[in-house]
Design a protein that fits this description.
Distance between the termini: 16 Å
Radius of gyration: 43 Å
Strand content: 5-15%
Number of strands: 18
Helix content: 40-55%
Strand order of the largest sheet: 1-2-3-6-8-7
Largest sheet: 6 strands, antiparallel
Shape: flat
């Protein structure tokens, strides 16, 4: 009756086959590596046995001294000359021999060797750690901290022989000469001396004075090996003639010393150990993943040289098979700066939109000899200076690390510090972390961030923008809908909108502690909004305006200010001209006052001229009259009026010149006034420099007819500008800023924003300029990273139909960067939703928004107002939950990560976290209702979850089965019921063991305890009420089921004792009958 399974052979020993199976599960993940270690250890022991065989005849005390003297070399594929056996013998015959070994050689089969000249002290050297060969390179003392002084240990002059893995093909002499030339150049850069190169054997010999790393970089390998040699790279064993079969069997992959890929010349001064530490710090997770992948690959590669992999060379070379002694380093392709791949969009896509900046045409130039450099002809946009020798340090790590942006303007790079004047070479082993000044606009003169400035610079304008009318455009993003926004308005409302923006800026000007440059920029913004209102706003036509003269713009403006005008269409151009004239007078008023204050009392004519440049006619007439110059006062009162008066003054000047009048008898400043009254502005400005706005005013007020429309005025100025006859419209910070900001600027790229607006008014149909240049930060501020106001100006001009452009993403990204720097993630997403939709980049906004959510999750998730604002914008809540899930998962708060993965419907990830981190903790804390809630919440989506039945389904099955057993225990008594009960328990326990096999490598100890608890509870319920009336076979069958459960051994032993007792009782009863 009893089966063999009831009485395991290991009962007496206190163990079982099941426990052995559990231990197998625990150790399965490291089996392969253990096999490799065993191979290495066996080889090492074999060497020691051979040494022991040669030293058996030595006295014991002498042998101990000898063992302390010779070096250690356990790697099976390495060798040394003299050999270890010879060295032991020589040390015994000549005590102290190991302290003066002549021409000591260390090598690796198939790679090369190093011959150290003279006598070398090798006592106690761990050659496995000191000398390391790799493909076409050798490193001695990889750990710089342990390297002795030059001339000591192995840090001495030596002859290096490296075997280039080139198949022995028929190379032309010219090709061989090319290889030799490149090897010589490589040696020169590494400060070594080239000796010879044998193309037949591939041996390359050179001399070194001391050691670090010597050999070929990957770029040099491409040039020499892949470019000049067209054959397939040979197996190192084959290159040695295939005669060393022991090496082929024993060689294994070194998992310690080959993870670092040396790729830059050693003369850059890079420390491989420090680079490896930096890699571990920066990429800890990826390091572990790569190590796991590496370990997995080791199990499949018992022969180090028996596998091949495909290497993709540069320059479209043909793919060639390359055999290496270490696994290939997988280089991850970096996403290019300012690049966007449209593609498709889903919840797992990893598209990237990077931070943009001005002067993005600043290209990196590749120079193999010196690394990566910035073109010194280009200026950096932040400091207007040059960064030198930006070397890609991450070539050591298989990653791109030229420049990395972090939150809040953190810049990590391997070049010179921004703005540094140090001309010394910058080593890529030094990583600089700097903060870019994106937040200058919210700092006071003491460089402190002011909350009021943040409110006025960002919150108030964006709230005003949000209150305007919007139109929405829904776009499909996978299963989601995203609403893109666009402000809509008209020119009748433009005046009120501009006034609202001006009010915000004027309140900002009242904040104490503003720097002078900040006040200058703010006042300029006020004037820009005023100019937008003047040039592009319209007024309702409610009636007729009474006729008025064309030469009394001031009277016209006074009438407009006094009350609502009744305008006829023919008068609109004149009204706009009058408004622009007043704007121009106000813009140049401070210039006029500054120059007037510098004139002494005797120079009243010069005083009059400066007043005329600002069209302050009333003051000029009063001054001339007060000086008794009544006739000049009469002429000044008619300045800029009828063209007849100008012609009369010009004709009079011509008559004087024709008659030979000596102008030396007339004051120079008086002649200047006459020239200006005659409309000859270039003659009047002889030897005098004025700003571009006053030059434009002189052109409009005194040169062109008084009824000239503004577009004609602007085109005339533009034509004179092209002919170099007009003052250049430089930006405000150059025109009026400190002198140090007036150096090194480009006339073409840095025109003032006001001038661009004038051109826009004059050429709405034919674009004479680029909108990207117009809305550059350089057109309005000296801060190249301040986009906060020009974004609003662009948006309002688009809203009223003045411009349209869908290629100003740099402007949008600039403002987004500023907002993110201030942790205003909700406003950054608001700006992203206003980026124009483009058919060629349909997923630009979704990818950008998700990237903001992921990178700044800690900021917006901790502020309920921001989170609610983002949800109100129509951003899918699943995106928010996904970002928070990744954030909490990264920080180790797995229960919260699980909840958010459930909310964003990432069922597979939620299931994985539930099984490996959450379920067992809840189960052991007896929070069964929570386990049931989470598991059942995923049940409807089990078709999307891998291993559902062996994962969360196990927990559901446990609770269902437990409930059924608890309900049926009281009524259980029939044989059929016990059989069905036993079968259900057997099926569950079998699945429980299978689940352990599937999840075992990822489950912590507590999870295994939870599994054991589940098995224990089911077993107890199964055996709880074994009725006396049941047959012995049925009872023993239940015990058979229990023995297959994953339960602790002590419980298994108890159940086994009960089974033995039951079986003994059964035998006793059988003997009685």
């Amino acid at each position: 009756m009893a089966s063999a399974s009831l009485f395991p052979a290991s009962v007496a020993g206190g163990s079982s086959e099941i426990s052995g199976t559990a231990s197998d599960i625990i150790s399965r993940s490291v089996t392969d590596l253990d096999d490799e270690k065993c191979d290495v250890q066996i080889t090492s022991l074999y060497k020691k046995r051979r040494v022991s065989a040669t030293t058996d005849f030595f006295p014991h005390g002498v042998l101990r001294k000898i063992e302390a003297s010779y070096p250690t070399l356990d790697s099976p594929d390495y060798y040394m000359e003299p050999s270890l056996e010879d060295m032991v013998t020589l040390e015994y015959l000549d005590p102290g021999y190991c302290s003066r070994v002549p021409d000591f050689v260390v090598g690796q089969f198939g790679y090369g060797c190093v011959k150290f000249f003279g006598e070398t002290d090798v006592r106690g050297l761990n050659l496995d750690q000191i000398v390391k060969f790799d493909r076409h390179e050798v490193t001695v003392y990889e750990d710089e901290s342990k390297k002795p002084m030059v001339g000591q240990g192995l840090n001495k002059a030596a002859e290096v022989t490296l075997r280039l893995q080139i198949k022995n093909v028929q190379l032309e002499k010219q090709e061989v000469d090319g290889i030799v030339k490149k090897l010589r150049e490589s040696m020169r850069r590494q400060r070594a001396q080239f000796i010879a190169f044998d193309p037949a054997s591939g041996e390359w010999k050179f001399l070194v004075d001391h050691f670090s790393r010597f050999g070929l970089s990957e770029d040099e390998e491409e040039d020499i090996i892949m470019g000049d040699a067209t054959g397939v790279v040979q197996d190192p064993g084959e290159m040695d003639g295939g005669g060393n079969s022991e090496i082929d069997e024993d060689m294994q992959i070194d998992t310690n010393g080959r993870m670092l890929s040396h790729s830059l010349p050693s003369h850059l001064g890079l420390d491989p150990v420090k680079m490896k530490e930096m890699r571990m710090l920066m990429f800890p997770v990826e390091e572990e993943e790569e190590l796991e992948d590496f370990r997995g690959s080791v199990s499949n590669q018992k022969q180090a040289f028996g596998k091949e992999y495909i290497r993709s060379p540069l320059h479209n070379s043909n793919q060639r098979l390359v055999r290496r002694s270490s696994p290939p380093v997988v280089r991850k392709t970096p996403v290019a700066l300012l690049e966007y791949n449209s593609g498709t969009f889903d919840s797992t896509s990893s598209g990237t939109v990077l931070m943009t900046q001005e002067n993005k045409g600043m290209a990196l130039k590749t120079i193999k000899k010196e690394g990566f450099k910035l073109d010194l002809k280009q200026e950096t946009p932040v400091s207007a200076s040059h960064s030198r020798n930006i070397v890609d340090a991450a070539l050591f790590m298989g990653r791109s690390f030229r420049v990395g942006w972090g939150p809040n303007g953190i810049l990590v790079h391997s070049g010179a510090p921004v703005g540094s004047n140090n001309t010394q070479r910058v080593l890529s082993s030094a990583i600089n972390i700097e903060k870019v000044a994106i937040d200058k606009v919210v700092r006071d003169e003491n460089n402190k961030v002011e909350k009021e400035l943040v409110d006025f610079a960002f919150h108030a304008p964006l709230n005003l923008h949000k209150d305007l009318n919007h139109e929405e455009k829904e776009v499909e993003v996978g299963p989601f809908q995203l609403k893109l926004l666009k402000v809509v308005s008209n020119r009748l409302e433009l005046s009120e909108i501009c006034r609202s923006y001006i009010d915000i800026i004027e309140r900002q000007l009242e904040v104490p502690g503003l720097s002078s440059s900040a006040r200058l920029v703010l006042m300029h913004q006020v004037m820009v909004w005023e100019l937008i209102k003047v040039l592009f706003s319209e007024r309702e036509n409610t009636g007729q305006l009474k006729s008025m003269g064309a030469d009394n713009e001031e009277d016209m403006m006074q009438d407009i200010k006094e009350g609502p005008p009744e305008v006829e269409p023919e008068s609109l151009p004149l009204i706009r001209r009058a408004e622009f004239s007043c704007w121009l007078q106000e813009s140049v008023c401070h210039h006029v006052q500054e120059e007037v204050s510098s004139v002494n009392d005797s120079g009243y004519l010069e005083h009059l001229f400066f007043l005329l440049t600002g069209r302050q006619l009333d003051t000029a007439v009063e001054l001339a009259a007060s000086k008794g110059d009544v006739r000049l006062a009469c002429l000044l009162s008619q300045a800029g009026g009828s063209t007849v008066n100008r012609s009369d003054v010009a004709r009079q000047l011509d008559i004087w010149r024709i008659n030979g009048l000596d102008f030396n008898f007339i004051e120079k400043d008086r002649v200047r006034l006459y020239e200006l009254l005659a409309g000859n502005i270039h003659g009047a400005l002889h030897d005098i420099k004025i700003d571009w706005k006053r030059f434009l005013g002189l052109l409009m007020w005194y040169h062109l007819p008084p009824d000239t429309a503004l577009p004609v005025v602007f085109r005339t100025y533009h034509r004179l500008l092209n002919d170099r006859k007009a003052t250049f419209p430089v930006p405000i910070y150059i025109d009026e800023g400190p002198g140090d900001e007036n150096t090194n600027w480009s006339r073409v790229e840095r025109f003032d924003l006001s001038y661009y607006l004038m051109l826009l008014h004059a050429s709405e149909e034919s674009q004479l300029y680029s909108l990207k240049t117009m809305f550059s930060t350089f057109s309005s501020t000296h801060d190249p990273l301040d986009y906060h106001m020009i974004w609003h100006q662009r948006a309002i001009l688009e809203a009223v139909g003045v411009i349209y452009s869908n290629d100003l993403q740099a402007l949008d990204m600039g403002l987004i960067s500023q907002l993110l720097c201030q942790e205003q993630c909700h406003w950054a997403i608001y700006v992203a939703l206003h980026m124009p939709y483009r058919d060629d980049y349909p997923y630009l906004q979704p990818i950008l928004i998700r990237e903001i959510l992921f990178q700044y999750c800690e900021s917006w998730s901790s502020r309920e107002s921001q989170r609610q604002f983002i949800e109100d914008l129509g951003v899918p809540s699943q995106w928010l939950h996904e970002a928070m899930a990744v954030y909490f998962n990264y920080h180790g708060d797995l229960p919260k990560a699980l909840e958010h993965f459930l909310e964003c419907a990432n069922w597979q990830k939620a299931h994985s976290i539930f099984m490996t981190s959450v379920a067992h903790a809840l189960f052991l804390s007896a929070d069964h209702s929570e386990v049931w809630r989470i598991a059942t919440s995923m049940e409807d989506h089990k078709s999307e979850i891998e291993n559902w039945d062996l994962g969360a389904g196990i927990h559901i099955s446990f609770y269902v089965l437990r409930s059924s057993l608890q309900e049926d225990n009281n009524a259980m008594g029939e044989l059929d019921s016990l059989d069905s009960k036993n079968a259900a328990c057997g099926d569950f326990l079998g699945r429980l063991k299978e689940s352990l096999a599937v999840w075992g490598g990822r489950l912590p100890v507590d999870a295994r305890v939870a599994y054991s608890k589940m098995g224990e509870e089911i077993c107890d319920l199964l055996l709880a009420d074994i009725s006396e009336g049941l047959t012995r076979d049925a009872q023993l069958s239940c015990f058979d089921t229990v023995f297959n459960a994953p339960i602790p051994e002590d419980l298994r032993s108890n159940h086994l004792q009960d089974a033995v007792a039951l079986f003994t009782c059964h035998l006793s009863e059988a003997a009685t009958y």
